[in-house]
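Narrative of accomplishments. A recurring question from our advisory board has been how the design workflow behaves on a single, concrete structure rather than in aggregate. To address it, we present the structure tokens for one chain from the evaluation set, followed by the sequence designed for it. No filtering or post-editing was applied between the two.
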């Protein structure tokens, strides 16, 4: 669900799901529609996500929108150009623990904040701070990809290489979309993640 403008009130929209589920496409679509409505739009993504285009939010299907590169969510307020009404953030899971607080602060100032990000890592573990952001958002869309093994809707990201640590930037060569049934996690990585 995409919210429409409502008086001077701000809010948070989250677009989550696994890789290849169309999060960036959907974020770009919403930001383009805001631009068409002549709203002031500012877009951000983490500096480390440089898979396709520097200084653009880009989807796997090559849609693009210019953006500013940041390391942490707390850089956002100072970077907003005067007149910003809509803030778009891609790969939000990489922007640090206080992302929910920063987004809430912007929403309380009357801005519409749209965050796209992975809700789980490649092991299927919720990716902090996305769970808190999802809880605080007015509107959440969970996108699904297509499982490359069986063709069912896919909620998980399968890593195709092992032993590379939690964050490994890459696309088709390193990851693929899988459903719950077809998703697998290496034994060693399971014990490291599920210690309880
Ligand atoms: P995300 O931001 O969630 O990683 P993108 O918006 O960048 O997703 O890319 C979505 C596009 O990826 C789809 O429109 C499709 O063209 C492509 N794609 C590649 N593999 C898959 C898959 N397994 N399931 C769905 N879409 C896929
Ligand atoms: Zn499957």
């Amino acid at each position: 669900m995409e919210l429409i403008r409502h008086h001077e009130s701000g809010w948070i929209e989250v677009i989550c799901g696994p890789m290849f589920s169309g999060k960036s496409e959907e974020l770009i679509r919403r930001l383009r529609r805001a631009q068409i409505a002549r709203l002031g739009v500012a877009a951000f993504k983490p500096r480390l996500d440089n898979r396709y285009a520097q200084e653009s939010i880009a989807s796997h299907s090559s849609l693009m929108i210019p953006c500013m590169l940041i390391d942490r969510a707390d850089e956002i307020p100072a970077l907003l150009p005067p007149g910003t009404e809509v803030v778009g953030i891609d790969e939000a899971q990489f922007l640090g623990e206080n992302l929910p607080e920063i987004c809430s602060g912007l929403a309380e100032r009357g801005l519409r904040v749209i965050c796209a990000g992975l809700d789980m890592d490649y092991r299927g573990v919720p990716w902090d701070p996305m769970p808190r952001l999802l809880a605080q958002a007015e509107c959440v869309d969970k996108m699904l990809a297509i499982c490359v093994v069986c063709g069912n809707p896919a909620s998980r990201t399968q890593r195709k290489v092992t032993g590379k640590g939690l964050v490994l930037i890459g696309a088709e060569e390193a990851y693929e979309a899988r459903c719950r049934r077809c998703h697998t996690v290496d034994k060693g990585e399971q014990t490291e993640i599920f210690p309880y």
